[in-house]
Amino acid sequence: MTTTQNDTITSSWTLNEVISAKPNLAARMEGLGLDYCCHGNDTLEQACAAAGLDVDQVTATLNQDATPGERAPWMTMSLSELVEHVVTVHHQYLWEELPRLGALMAKVHMVHGDRHPELGEIRKVFEAIRAELEPHLMKEERVLFPKIKELEAASDAPRFPFGTVDNPISVMTSEHEAAGELLDRLRQLTKSYQTPADGCASYQALFAGLERMAMDTHLHIHKENHRLFPAAIERERQLSA
User: Fold this and answer.
1) pLDDT at 169 > cutoff 60
2) What is the DSSP code (8-state) at residue 140?
3) Measured between alpha carbons, how far is 165 from 176 in angstroms, rounded to an integer?
4) Going from the N-terminus, what domains does the chain have, and what CATH number goes with each?
5) Is 25 within 8 Å of 62 (Cβ atoms)?
6) What are the tens digits of pLDDT across the range 20-79?
7) Virtual CA dihedral for 200, 204, 205, 206, nearest 10 degrees?
């Protein structure tokens, strides 16, 4: 499968540009260990050098796997539409999935912890991810997202108790980075979510669930860091001009 000439990915594209133009490549980039959520401004050349990958080979693979003419739908959504999309697609998923994975993690750790002591550290990192994400989701839903919707509807710059919208966005971005580091650690500890040979069905389900959660969260963070937040800051700037 090939792309048109003007649509061909090159080593100078940023990871953000790759996912925004070719969202179907998210799984492939996850498999390559290319962090498009918290390091989306890195070029493919920079990211491949950091990961010890051959940039020409990676670029060729991405172009082969890309869907021609595809564009990320969230790139053309309004602020309010994108807020609703993030909440319904990603927040709701995490509110349901994190407790489910926590219960499954406890079960697998109890049964397999003696033979696989690494599960103890995996469980600690997962609980740290949950402790990071759940309050984060609540702050976005109760504080930041309603203000972003207010910005879109306003004809003059609103006065917010926290100052400019950039202030809570800076906090959210910092929390994204912390979550991203924990997800990287989880990937390392699980050896890219490879179930041990003696792993039971629950073990396999746990690692598959962790991998899906990580990929969804990376895409979730990407949408906020590289589309929603910059658009909200730009909207406030326009209203203040």
Assistant:
1) yes
2) I
3) 17
4) 5-71 (1.10.3910.10), 74-240 (1.20.140)
5) yes
6) 888 889 889 988 889 888 788 899 999 999 999 999 999 999 999 888 767 789 989 999
7) 100
